[in-house]
Structures are given as C-alpha cells and as structure tokens.
From TrEMBL:
Belongs to the helicase family. DinG subfamily. Type 2 sub-subfamily. It is an enzyme of class 3 (hydrolase). ATP binds at A282, G283, T284, G285, I286, G287, K288, S289. Keywords: 4Fe-4S, ATP-binding, DNA damage, DNA repair, DNA-binding, Exonuclease, Helicase, Hydrolase, Iron, Iron-sulfur, Isomerase, Metal-binding, Nuclease, Nucleotide-binding. Its cofactor is [4Fe-4S] cluster. GO terms for biological process: DNA repair; DNA replication. It catalyses: ATP + H2O = ADP + phosphate + H(+). The keyword Zinc does not apply. This is 3'-5' exonuclease DinG. The gene is dinG. It holds the Pfam family Helicase_C_2. HAMAP family: DinG_exonucl.
Length: 931
C-alpha cells in the first residue's frame, strides 16, 4: 500500500460556501510510521465565532498574523501530491479545500465509513469516541494536528482489525462496493489484497464460520400449557421472602428490609391471586422491581402461566433481564424462564438479508448497512437491532427492508425456508415458553390493537414506569409521513428496470411464455407510468400544503421553533384548503389506480404459477409490503384532508432544523383503547411508578387511562428527605415573561452556583432553545474556572453524556426532557439539581391543544397535573440512595407568585424548604453540602 495522508482542518463553521478555514494539518504516513507532518494556522479574514474558540481554543489573536489560505495552498498540494487522503468525515475537509481549487482528484478514505462497518456495535462514531474505544491516547482536542494524528491512529487500528476478518467476507464487501460510490471502497480493496497475500495459516477465521452467520440449532423449552383455574398464592409465604431472615436476606449480603417494599409485594400478590387491577405509587428507594418480580415469578411458576412486564425505558428492561431476574432466580432457586420480546422491526430477517446479498446494494447507505450487518453477525451478533448502531434515517430505512417487519412471513415459512434461524422466530418461541415476558409500552398497546401479532396470549400484566403509558402508546399509534418517505417508497417500488417491479420483471421472464411475459411487461410499464405520475402528483399536493403553511404564517420565514398547524373542521373550510383538496383528489385517484394494479399483479403471479421460487416469493413479499404501506398512507392522508376520524388529531409541521414538511396523525385518547383491550380483557393489571399521583390523588391518571376499576396504594420513600434534600426557591428572579431579564438571571445564577460548588450540577430545561442559549453564555466563564459544560443534543446519546458527567470531577450537565427522569447518579457526582422552569407542556402543541379541548378546565384538570408529574420526576433525580445529600434549586418564581405554585411544593416528599435571594444561593448551597 502506498504512503497515505491524514488530513484535518478547523473552520469557522460547517458551510464550505460561507465559512472559512482557520487551521490545516496533514500527516504523511506508511502503516504505523509517520514520515512527515505539515500544519499551519490560517487567517480566515473574518472574526472567529466564540463557540468555535470555545471548541478549538483558536482565537482571533492567534490567527491575526497567520497567512491567508491562498498563500499555503500550493505548499499543501505539493505535500499531499497524489496520495490517497484519510480523514474522519473526510468529504467535509475536502469540500473546503476543493473549493479553493486543489485536491479534486485524490482518493478519499473515510475513517467514519471504516468504523461504521468494522465496529458495528460502537455507541458513537465521532473521532474522539473511536479513539477511546480503540484505546488510543492521542486527545481529540479539535486542533488540526492532534486530530490528524488521531485520524491516522484510528485508521491504522481499523486497518489491523479488518485484516482479522475472513477473506470471503472482505471479498463480498469489495464485490458489493464496486458499482457504488463509497468512501470505504478503495481501502477495502487494499485490505483484501493484503489479506490475500497472508499465509494460509494466518487466514483462519477468528470467529464463527462466515457462511454460518445464523444459528438454526435453537431448541426452546416447550410452550407453557396455561391452566384454566389458577391457584392463589400464600400471601404470608411470599412476603416472608423479603422479610428479615427471609431468602433474600440470606442470599444478599447487603439486603435491607423495607416495610414499604413488603407492603407493595403483599398488594401485588393479592391482585394476582384475586384477579384484580391495582395502581401502586412506590416512592424512590422502595425497591419496587423486587416487590412485583417476586410475586410475579411465584405466580407464573405455580400456575404454569406467563406474566408480561412492560417498561418505558431500555435501561429498566436491561436491569430486569440482566440483573434483577437472575438474582431472583438464584436467591429462590427457581426454574424461572424470562425473555425480552420486541416488535418485529427490531429483528433481522435472514431471508431478506440473503435477498439483498444476492441482489447487491444500490446506494452507499445500503452498502454500509449490509457490510455492518455481515461483520456484526460474523462477530457473534444475534440479529437484535439494539446491538448495532444505525446512524440517521437513511440507514434506519435500509434496516426496515432487512427486518422481520413482513406481514407475509409466517412461522411455518420461516422454519421451512430458514430452518428456524430467524431471530424474531426464535424470540417468539422463547416467549411462548417464558414465565416472564418483558416488553416496552410502545409494543404493548400497538400489539393488542393490531391483533396480537407479536405477544403470545397472556392474562397478567405489570406496567412499570406506568406514568409513561399514555405518551408511549400515543407515539406508537401515531403516523408521520413526509416527501422523502413517500419518494423512497416509490423508489423502492421502482419500474421496468429498477426496484421491486424491475426485479419481478427479470425473474418472471424465465417462468412465463413469451405472450404471458409481454402481458406482464405491459402491466409493469403501466405501473411504472402510474408511479411516475404519482410522484409528480404527491409533489404538487405537498406544494399546496406548503403554500397553506406559508399563508398561515403570513409569508414570514419559518421561526427557529418550526411551525405546527392543527387541521380542524374550521381549517377545512378555508379557501387555501380547497386547493389542497383538489390536489389530493388527483393524487388519490392516481394512488388508487396504482394500488389496484399492484394488487392485481401480486394476485396474478401468486395464483398463476404452481410453484414460486424463493426469489419470486421474496420479491412478491416486498411488493405486498409496499402495497400495505401505500394503502396506510392513503388512509391517513384521506383522513387528514377530507374525511377526519373524530378520535384522531391531525396537524402539519415544518421542523426547525431542516424546514422539512411532515403530515402527522395521533390518537386523541388512549384511555378507551386501554379499557377495551387491557382493563376489560386481562385478569389482573398492576400499574406502578414513583409518580402516579398529582396532589396526592390518582384521579388524573385514572381519567387518562380509563382505570376506573383499579385499586390504589401510595407508598412513600424510605429516604430521610428532611435531612437529605434542601429545596431552594429563588424569590427575586424575574418572571419567565420578562424574557431577557429572566434569561440573564438564569445564566448569572448558574455561573455563580457552579463556581461555588465546583460543578456537580444537573440543570433541567423545558426548552432546547433556552438550553442552547444558556450553554453558549455559561460555557466560556465556567471553562475558565476549570468546569466542563456538557449539553444534551451535541450528538452524544443521553447514556454517553451521563457516563461522561459521572466520571468528571468538575462538570455541569444541561438536559431537557430525556433527563427529567431515568437519570440515576448516586453520590457526590450529582449534588445540585436546578429546575429552570416549571415543566408545563407547550399549550400550542397539537396533541396538548386537542386533549385540552376535552376538559371543562384544561389548565387545572390536564396541564397542571401533567406538569406536577414531570416536576416530581425531575426532583427525584437528586436523592438516589440513603446516604445522598443535595440541593434542588427552582429558578421559576411562579412557584411562589401563582396560586397553583403550592401544588408543586406539596407534591414533593417532606424536605427542608428555603425561600431566598439569588445572591444568597451559592453560600447556602455550599453550607448545606458542607463544602
């Protein structure tokens, strides 16, 4: 392999058309050896934005006497020559330099593309994270020379890793990359050459046999035979397990008896035994997981039945399946079978994977996902989507075409065609024999509404994180579509020479007489013409909606918050809407013709051949899937435009980040569905959470979920909040309505408080825009004080941010909705929690607005209880163990000035409350924390 160049640049921004280069570094290397380095600062001939200075450390003084970019271009071009150029997201760097007239013909090697394939399970693919994953000590400093050195080190580690792959796998990746423009193609060709020159003994496959990517020798336990008359549990016997001297106390060294935990366990035991529904609010620290797991396990085993446990978060699912249930099994010495079951789209379909391998990828995204999946499976991947990192909507779209989300795929087909190797089939078989099945809320209700396509029959259900069941079900049962979704669907359908129709035409040529094939060809030509016409009609239809949205904002630009317009009966009477209806009528007519033609085509081929080959069957299954998705779009769009369902909410949205228009539909109520499919159908449902009540009452959640028949139980936390938590309410901060004064006060308060405490602070916002403004203001002064500021939305996942924050000595973490709950940082790493604003929903949000209209007093009956539940969740982030101590700061004086404010305070556990000034805040906080 020739010498390569690692290249990195720093710029004033992300747009090559408008922004300028401020630093360039290039490293010539051969293998692990660096041969030469070249770097320089560049005068951008414009001010460097403060955010870029904060990121890179490069300020205006540093570049004042640096050369302009024109003065260094030839020197840089000479240094690089015709060597291939390596970099992370290298097209970004090349875009700036090629605009200056150099490096147009160099071969590009993107370390992102290499990492995406070779590290399929990595949580993040930015350069710094890859350095950490690969154990490289070079810092990701956002200075060009450091980052070029890091890119070289990452490249070399990935290159070595690729040489470990089976030669057949490398050859397949190279073969698939030949017709596709991909910035990993050149380097994988070099890797294959190097691999083929290795001696035979060095080529032994390090992991599993490449061709045996899926294991079909799966032998599940036999399905449970459900009993007709279950036997009740002995309540005292079950309770004794968690009581002093019981099995848990004997098994776990650090086990603590908690009376509230045993009280909850007894209530759950009675509900299961008596076939009753129950709502339990279990305060932080009770240990509610074991309070329901112990009786659920005993009940399932004693009656040879299954209990479904539904959670909102993956974190809790993983805790249950990987820790709590194994501990329970060992402590009680039970033959307890448990499994996690997900929706079909979460599992890889071996049949669809083989079809893509045979056909070959057509886009860089298809190629990247295919190569990633093959490497993942070769390294022991189990076919569960959660194990790999899929980046962006394009990769997720490819996954959907590889997933088990296929209506026509039945268990018997899977067994006959793939020998039972399908991960979804295997997980479904496991679920049939499991005592405990763990699912998420989104799957729970969408499964029962759609006729139980995933979950096996069950009569007993435990819903943990129960305060989320409405929002999770709303998301699962909502529909959203935009121009690119519809275009991708039509592209997937294709025509005479592309997509599903093209493949079908080619495959059928060998199976039909010339006259029959000519008729098929004519039909596919008609479908192609209709699809082209539909694509045009859809664009005209969406353009008419864009005009409607523009008129709604009176011709002004889309605001930084985007634009949402609910479609109400009155909206459909506006003159603008008439134009939308005309365009939809034309679109709908074309769509109906196309759907009828696809249905006839599918039926004609299915019934016209005695035997269908596997490839034809797969292609017909894809055609049926496209028909289903187009039919779904037609039904939803028909409702939005002219035939609304009174139980649905319709709105049009333009997103703030990319100005993309989308059409959205959501259910107005979840309660009737819960009542019909769960409360009235199941023998026993237990709903639990740390926050189910507002102002000490279950009434709000009862009404939202139609839970009229459920018994209720409130159990307080065993923690000593009186001595552990100080609630500090700032009495002199401006009201949020004074936008500028309020924002300045928030920023100054956070800076002074963080300096006083040395960070160790989580700040919760209700708006991402305010979070960004605050971050920009507080980051420079806090960095000067040695305090790092981490913010949600910088590209890192919530889990990565939390891990980084936990491990930092002096840090402040800024978060929005995802951080109001589920954050568990015990000890001194989190000593101060700041709630910037009371967490009311935005009243104009279409779902909030529509649901508000169903109440006589929407604020007190709906918006206030929702805000109190979220407020309680936020407060609960602070005290996580008996020994924790901390301060919760409220920077919203409405809690004092408004009549509803005391409802928030009274909803909290009994703790020390101090109402004081912003000036007093740092001193009182440090005194409480003994700093």
């Amino acid at each position: 392999m020739p010498s390569l160049i690692a290249l990195d640049i720093e710029t004033t921004g992300l747009d090559p058309q408008k922004d300028a280069v401020i630093e360039i570094a290039a490293i010539r290397f051969n293998g692990s050896r660096i041969e030469a380095e070249w770097d320089t600062l560049i005068n951008p001939q414009r001010p460097i934005p403060p955010a870029i200075t904060a990121l890179t450390g490069i300020n205006n003084d540093m570049v004042r006497n640096a050369p302009p970019i024109r003065a260094v271009l030839q020197d840089l071009a000479d240094f690089i020559g015709d060597s291939p150029v390596v970099g992370h997201n290298i097209r970004f760097d090349l875009g700036f330099l090629q605009r200056q007239g150099i490096l147009h013909l160099v071969e590009a090697i993107d370390t992102y593309e290499m990492a995406a394939v070779l590290l399929p399970t990595a949580s993040r693919y930015n350069l710094g994270s890859l350095g950490q994953i690969l154990g490289i000590l070079i810092p990701n400093s956002h200075r060009a020379l450091d980052d070029a050195r890091l890119a070289h080190a990452v490249f070399w580690q990935l290159y070595q890793r690729a040489l470990e792959l089976p030669i057949e796998l490398l050859a397949e990746i190279v073969r698939h990359s030949e017709p596709v423009e991909w910035d990993g193609g050149w380097i994988f060709r070099q890797i294959l050459r190097a691999r083929s020159r290795q001696p035979i003994e060095a080529r032994q496959t390090r992991q599993r046999d490449y061709e045996g990517l899926f294991t079909a020798d799966y032998r599940p336990a036999p399905p449970l035979t459900l009993v007709e008359t279950p036997q009740p549990l002995d309540e005292d016997e079950v309770a004794s397990i968690l009581e002093p001297g019981g099995l848990f106390a004997r098994y776990f060294d650090q086990f603590e008896y908690r009376s509230q935990q045993v009280e909850m366990l007894r209530a759950v035991t009675r509900a299961l035994s008596n076939g009753e529904h129950l709502m339990v609010e279990a305060g932080t620290g009770i240990g509610k997981s074991f309070a329901y797991l112990v009786p659920a396990a005993m009940w399932a085993i004693q009656n040879n039945t299954r209990v479904v446990i539904s959670t909102n978060t993956i974190t809790l699912q993983e805790q249950l399946i990987n820790k709590d249930i194994p501990d329970l099994r060992d402590a009680l010495k039970l033959d307890l079978r448990a499994t996690v079951l997900k929706g079909r789209s979460n599992y890889l379909c071996p049949r669809r994977l083989e079809a893509l391998r045979h056909k070959g990828p057509e886009t860089p995204e298809e190629l990247r996902v295919l190569a990633k999946v093959l490497v993942w499976l070769q390294e022991g991947g189990r076919g569960d989507r959660s194990e790999i990192n899929l980046n962006g909507p394009a990769e997720r779209e490819v996954w959907m075409r590889l997933s088990a989300e296929d209506e026509g795929c039945k268990a018997e087909v899977c067994v006959s065609r793939m020998g039972g190797a399908c991960p979804f089939y295997q997980s479904r078989q496991q679920a049939l024999s499991a005592h405990l099945i763990i699912v998420n809320h989104a799957l729970l209700l969408s499964d029962v509404v759609s006729g139980s396509r995933v979950l096996p029959e069950y009569q007993y259900l435990i819903v943990d994180e129960g305060h989320h069941i409405e929002s999770a079900s709303t998301s699962a049962l909502s529909y959203r579509v935009n121009q690119s979704d519809l275009s991708r669907l039509l592209q997937e359908l294709g025509g005479l020479s592309s997509g599903v129709l093209g493949r079908l035409t080619t495959l059928m040529k060998e199976n039909l007489r010339p006259s029959e094939w000519a008729l098929l060809h004519q039909t596919v030509q008609r479908a192609t013409d209709l699809a082209t016409r539909l694509d045009f009609d859809l664009k005209q239809f969406l353009k008419s909606i864009e005009v409607f949205m523009e008129n709604a904002r009176e011709g002004k630009p889309v605001s930084p918050y985007g634009q949402q317009v609910r479609i109400l009966p009155s909206t459909r009477k506006l003159p603008d809407w008439t134009e939308i209806e005309i365009e939809w009528d034309s679109t709908n007519e074309t769509l109906s013709l196309l759907l009828n033609l696809i249905a006839d085509l599918h039926k004609g081929i299915s019934e016209g051949l005695d035997r269908l080959g596997e490839e034809i069957e797969d292609t017909l299954a894809n055609l049926a899937s496209i028909h289903r998705r187009l039919s779904e779009a037609q039904a939803y769009l028909n409702g939005l435009v002219s035939q609304p369902d009174p139980s649905a909410i319709y709105w049009v949205e333009i997103s703030p980040n990319n100005n993309r228009l989308s059409l959205q539909i959501a259910p107005l109520h979840i309660g009737p569905l819960m009542e019909k499919y769960l409360w009235h159908e199941k023998n026993s449902i237990i709903l639990t959470s740390a926050t189910l009540t507002a102002e000490g009452e279950f009434q709000y959640l009862r009404s939202r979920l139609n839970a009229d028949e459920a018994d209720e139980l409130i159990l307080g936390s065993p923690f000593d909040y009186e001595n552990a938590a100080l609630l500090y309410i700032a009495k002199d901060i401006p009201e949020p309505t004074d936008a500028n004064g309020y924002q300045r006060a928030v920023e100054q308060s956070l800076i002074r408080l963080a300096r006083a405490t040395g960070g160790r602070m989580l700040v919760l916002f209700t708006s991402y825009a305010q979070l960004r403004r605050t971050s920009q203001a507080i980051t420079p002064p806090l960095l000067e004080a040695g305090i790092q500021v981490y913010e949600q939305g910088e590209g890192a996942s919530a889990n990565i941010l939390l891990e980084t924050f936990r491990e930092s000595d002096k840090a402040v973490l800024l978060g929005t909705r995802a951080f109001w709950e589920g954050v568990d940082i015990p000890g001194e790493a989190l000593s101060v929690l700041v709630i910037v604003k009371l967490p009311f929903d935005v009243p104009s949000d279409p779902i909030i607005a529509a649901r508000s209209e169903t109440f006589d007093d929407p604020f007190n009956e709906y918006q206030l209880p929702e805000a109190i539940l979220r407020f309680r969740q936020g407060f609960g982030r602070l005290i996580r163990t008996q020994s924790d101590r901390g301060v919760v700061v409220i920077l919203d004086r409405r809690i004092l000035s408004k009549q509803y404010g005391k409802a928030f305070i009274e909803s909290l556990p009994q703790c020390k409350v101090h109402i004081g000034t912003l000036n007093e805040l740092p001193a009182i906080t440090t005194r409480w924390l003994n700093l």
